[in-house]
Amino acid sequence: MGLSEGAKQRLSLVIEAAKTVFHYGFIPTVLYLGFQKGADPGMPEITMTNLLW
Prior knowledge:
Membrane topology: Single-pass membrane protein
Structural class: mainly alpha
Low-confidence stretches: none
Mean pLDDT: 89
Order of helices and strands: HH
InterPro entries: Tom7
Family: Belongs to the Tom7 family.
Radius of gyration: 19 Å
Number of helices: 2
Oligomer: single chain
Largest sheet: none
Subcellular location: Mitochondrion outer membrane
Main location: mitochondrion
Helix content: over 70%
Number of domains: 1
Strand content: under 5%
């Protein structure tokens, strides 16, 4: 049993949207999680200027 043409188009649209969200959201998510965790003991504090330097 195959998918109808409309279902294939919707599935393709969902997959493209997921790719776009992953593409533009991966690095900001990793940075956010790193800032939330904080620095390991003995390491300098994580700040935005440290990220840019």
